């Protein structure tokens, strides 16, 4: 039984009309649905260069909240494309974010993806200093890769430490993607990043996540390509 046959049979049995179940069409249909729901007026007013990132985030989360909360600061799109084309490394605060980044797309530009949160030296130092591993992991990244992209999707303390390092003129990231999710220090950490002069893509408010950070990276690869 072919795909069309079994879905047609399922439609007859359930009374549900499916748009498509063909693998090659599902993503395309999803983006069409997103754009339909956003509406022509919104699409026309949203900055064209930023739209692919927003659409990818909504596709990943099914949450149209990001249409209002996603902020692109200090020439973020231009800076992101430059950084990716230079093959700068991408530092994440979680293995989940690192896993969600398209390695083939990153490899096309020579961008390596690193996450240090599980490293033994990070664990030991965090325990010794009574700090979060997220904060210590970005310190390690700053020592190893002074020029890089940070994709922070989980730990607000990683953003807080980045803010301190920037304020102390110890680092100047090429780009910060700030999308931690949660309650404690999440909103505040994002707002502090937006107060810097560093190019940043930030999901204001409590929502976000490692999947959002990865989705933004993947959208940027497409834009840079």
TrEMBL record:
Fetch the InterPro entries from UniProt: Cbl_synth_CobH/CbiC, CobH/CbiC_sf
Task: Give the GO terms filed under biological process for this record.
Answer: cobalamin biosynthetic process
Keyword annotations of the record? Cobalamin biosynthesis, Isomerase
Q: Which Pfam families match?
A: CbiC (PF02570)
Organism domain of life = Bacteria
Is Transferase one of the keywords UniProt gives this record? no
Q: Which residues form the Cobalamin biosynthesis precorrin-8X methylmutase CobH/CbiC domain?
A: 25-222
Q: In which pathway does it act?
A: Cofactor biosynthesis; adenosylcobalamin biosynthesis
GO terms, molecular function: precorrin-8X methylmutase activity
Q: Which PANTHER family match?
A: COBALT-PRECORRIN-8 METHYLMUTASE
Q: Which family does it belong to?
A: Belongs to the CobH/CbiC family.
Q: What is this protein called?
A: Precorrin-8X methylmutase
